[in-house]
Structures are given as structure tokens and as C-alpha cells.
Amino acid sequence: MKIKERYFIVGGEWNVIHLPSKPNGFAIFIIGDVNHYVQSNSSSWHQRPDQAKFIETLKGAGYTIVYSNLFGRNWGSDEACRLLQRLYDEVMKKEILNKKVHLIAEGMGALVAAKLVPEMEASFRSVVMINPCLSLKEYFENEKNNKLFYKRILKELKSAYYLEETELEKAIIAMDINNYKIISVPTKIFHCIQATPYSLQSHVRPYEQLCNKVTSNVEVSIYLKSKPFQELAKPTIHFLKKHQKFL
User: For 200, which DSSP code?
Assistant: First the structure.
């Protein structure tokens, strides 16, 4: 029986690799949003039908898919960035794949992508962001208006960044979009206005403007209503294929 997926541990975190029946030689690394997880024999991408179909469509196009539990709600921590870099190294050692990979980041996962990709540009071929969170500062400030959610995110951030409240708030204030290093890897953003707490004006537009001042590499597609993951598979593949002409 041909193996379709493998679960393995790197850095104490569970990871999974989905193997296509007809590989095209290219890999996609996925960084999930706040409800993303990987366990010893399953993941959130198996549990949600639309995400499962998204994965199957990408596999059907020949892509090898890799993703990690990545410390759960990591909120773009340096620890999560280091683990993803380590995971990339591990996969490249063990699999026969092109060294330049595609990256898909959903929601909170975009915080990792925005920090990591400029540091590893030679390793990434393209980036797709789906309803991205790109300003932790903006999101944190908005959550202050809701005491229940504020307590939760404060606890998550303290755990992710190993900082107490006073130091954490100072660190978050410094996490402004304008402090990002500009990404020069071709990037596509899919933003569904009614399906995400990360607003177009606070997250997507400032990041688009920052990067396109220099590179003009960020494209944005806006949808008024929610788009199931399975409906984003075809435009995602179309974008990825545009950036596979040069190895």
C-alpha cells in the first residue's frame, strides 16, 4: 500500500507530510490560523471538509504538502519561526523536492510568514496568504475592548513570547507593520471581508503598500463574502504555477 501521509516530530511538535500520487517535485508548506493543530495521527485539516478538499486538490496537482502544529497559537513568535526553518531543513534532507518551496499562510500564520520569508528568501518560491493577520499590534488593541477575549489573547501571547504583561505590551507596540522587512518573494493575498477578524484596512492594505513601495510583488484579491477553502484551491494553484517556470 502506498503511503499517503506521514506524521513525525520535530522540536517536540507534531508535523505531517501529505504525499501526492503523482508528485510534481514542488512542496507547499502551510502555516495555519489560531484553530490549526497537528496531532499524532490527525490534524485540523482532516477535520474540516473544506480544508480537507483544499489539501486533496493541491495533492491532485502534484504538490507535496507539509505543515506543523507549530506550538498552536504561536502569534508569530520567534520560536515558531525557528521551528519552521528547522522543519524545512528536515524535509529537504529526506525528500526529493525542489529546494525552493511555496508557502501558504492562513490568518495568524501570516505573522510567521512575514517575519520568516525575508530571512529565508532563497528558500521560498511564492507566498499565498488567506485572510491574513499582519498587525499583531492592531489586533491586540482591538481585543482590549472585549474583556473575555482580551484575557485569552493576553494569556496566549505571554505563553508564546515568554514575557510578562508589562514587557509584552511594550513588545507588541513595536510589532508594527512598518517594522517588517520588505518581502520580495511573489505574494498573493486572498481576503474575504465577511469571514475574518483581520480587517482589510488594518492588515492587508498597509502590508501591501509597504511591500509594493519597493517590489510590486504583492497582489490582493478581495471577496465580499466567505470563500470556502476548496474554492480557493484553483486560484491558489494558478498563482503557484506562474512561479515554477524558473527553478
Answer: I
Whether 142 contacts 172, CB under 8 Å:
no
pTM of the model: 0.95
Say how far apart CA 207 and CA 134 lie, in whole Å: 7
DSSP letter assigned to residue 8:
E
70 three-state secondary structure: coil
> Closest by alpha carbon to 65, among 106, 5, 130, 1?
5
Q: Work out the pLDDT band at 228, boundaries 50, 70, 90.
A: confident
Cα–Cα dist 76/114, whole Å: 9
User: How far, in Å, CA of 189 to CA of 126, rounded?
Assistant: 11
Mode of pairing for the β-strands spanning 187-192 and 5-10: unpaired
Task: Please tell me the total count of domains within the chain.
Answer: 2
Instruction: Please say which residue of 116, 144, 175 terminates a domain.
Output: 175
Q: What pLDDT digit, counting tens, does each position of 45-54 carry?
A: 999 999 999 9
pLDDT digits (tens, 9 = 90+) for 174-186: 788 988 999 889 9
**Phi-psi sector, 204: left (phi>0), alpha (psi -120 to 50), beta:** alpha
Cα angle, residue 102 at apex, residues 70 and 204 outer, rounded to 5°:
75
For the chain, the farthest-separated pair of C-alpha atoms sits apart, in whole angstroms, at: 55
**Domain assignment of residue 247, yes or no:** no
SS3 177: helix
Q: Which helix (H) or strand (E) holds 208?
A: helix 205-212
